[in-house]
Amino acid sequence: MALHEIIVASAARFPDQMAVVDPERDVRVTYGALHKVSTSVQRLLEEAGVGPGSRVGICAPKSIGTVAGIVGVLKAGAAYVPVDSTAPPSRNGYIFADCSVDAIVADDKLLAGLNDELGLMEVRPIEALSPLGVDLVVARPPADRRADRSIVAPANLAYILYTSGSTGKPKGVMHTHTSALSFVDWCSKIFAPTPSDNFSSHAPFHFDLSILDLYVAFKHGATLTLIGESMGQQPARLAETIAEQAISCWYSTPSILRLLLEFGKLDTRDFSALRVINFAGEVFPVKHLRALKSVWPGPRYFNLYGPTETNVCTYFEVPEAIPEERTEPLPIGYPCSGDRCKVMDGDNEEVAPGEEGELYVAGGSVMAGYWNLPERNAEAFYNDETGTRWYKTGDMVRNVDGCYQYLGRRDRMVKRRGYRVELGEIESALYTHSAITEAAVIAMPDEESGVRIIAFMNWTEDASPSIVQLKQFCAKVLPKYMIPDKFSVQPSLPRTSTDKIDLQRLKDLEA
User: Which residues lie closer than 8 Å to 491 by C-beta, 6 or more apart?
Assistant: First the structure.
């Protein structure tokens, strides 16, 4: 089965069931209508030369029309390449040129910037989407920017998600229909969705969290409620929408849940429809998770783990009660989506249970590879003696009785005074302070000491803390060699378009 066949099947079973709701534009569409309008997009794309093996860019704010565009791309046999519509045109132009897209489904107001990057494009409006209140177009890049069919993409490629690359250029993560459905099918078993469910769509479509939102909802004829960028950053409006739309299955980063907890006035509304709360993308400080469960005690909570390259490869269901004395984050849990995991050392040897090492993942949900980066693919995978292909996540973990505990990023470990320091461990310790709601730690090179550790934080008490107070607190929760050299109190910490704390911007700020 392919991803778009999920929508076709649900349209046949539930033609009058509401498929997608856009509360900001006050627009909604049934499964029958979504199937019809996405077919119109498919035909327009095919007239523009799109077919199996093509890549099609998506550059538009979240809307029902954008969803129909994505489905139309899949129906045409192509892979969609979504980008952040608020990002600089230079970045999006680079991505579309790197993929040699055959066409771009774009908001017409964004065409000028893309034209500056890609050259003069043929443009046709998607008239079928005008009743949905959006002005989207199909733009065809110049011939020298279109897909080279001699470049053979992996079989049944469904989408390419671009993530930040260590070289400074974004890299494309390729997923097939099979790898996506491996995760979607697992979600179906664990969350038991029904047509009466209402899924949130908080993650932008260029973020891997959107795969659960879109395709698990569509597979079961459930409703998908779109949360746009502006609403997604306003906790009061967001809380109101969750209650009014009776959302039952929520998925976001922990940062958004913390904002809802702090500013959403959750005790003033009816959230009884909520039955599943999933979070992923970053560590959820246990004090915030415990506080959220005290306000929303009814739903089941799941910590879903997995880099974009693996979809979700481990999960952990949060227990009903989190002991008050617990301060360390909960585990990332057990393998899922039909995947296998093992913990390896730097020589590709499996470590003993309980010892720390890098998490390797193999199985159906793992990506096909990075687009057009053969050297990076060779580094990212390890092929064992049986021929099994393991993706090296770069995350350090410990296996305790089959349950994996996340220790931090391999690239966030630094040597200081001869000791190995995991920056995430310092962040976890800072979160134990009652006045710290956000914390992020970076390391900067230093000529004298080799490395300086800087802690950024959001402080909720009226009086700002002194350096002495912060050092004294850290001395109680951290060994001396892990105490930061510098503390910076900020009104809020910068975030990426996928709602993670933007560590690179903090480094730029410090520099």
Answer: 458
